[in-house]
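Second attempt. The first submission of DUF5412 domain-containing protein had a stray character pasted in from the spreadsheet, which I only caught after the job came back as garbage. Lesson logged: always re-copy from the clean sequence file. Corrected sequence (131 aa) follows.
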Amino acid sequence: MDRFAEDRASSKKCSLSIIALTLFLMALVLILWGRSWYYDLDRLPRGTVLEQQQSPNNKYTLIAYLSDAGATTSLSLLCELRFNDGNAEHKTIYFQKDTDAVSIDWIDEDHVTINGHQLRVPDEIYDDRKE
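This time the job returned cleanly.
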């Protein structure tokens, strides 16, 4: 094999390696983006308000929604935490699929139980898709 043919073969291998690496990185980015999109609670549709309760110190309002994402999904429960001081954005802290009922019990000003799951507000989030 002459020098020119060896250079072409080496260049072809390098090009194929770059293409393979690029495709792998694109697939990885799509997978990571898709996963974060799937678990993004803020993109879920709000539906009918089932219940609304204020925390004992009136710092928070918890609103429970019955979420219906369409014909191919079951009803889900979505709970949004609102900060009554008006300085922070609303935050979705609870998602449970395959349910249409809610039970909310404030334990104290920073702890709430929603359908048997205790959360420390505003930091903890329950998403049953992650279990």
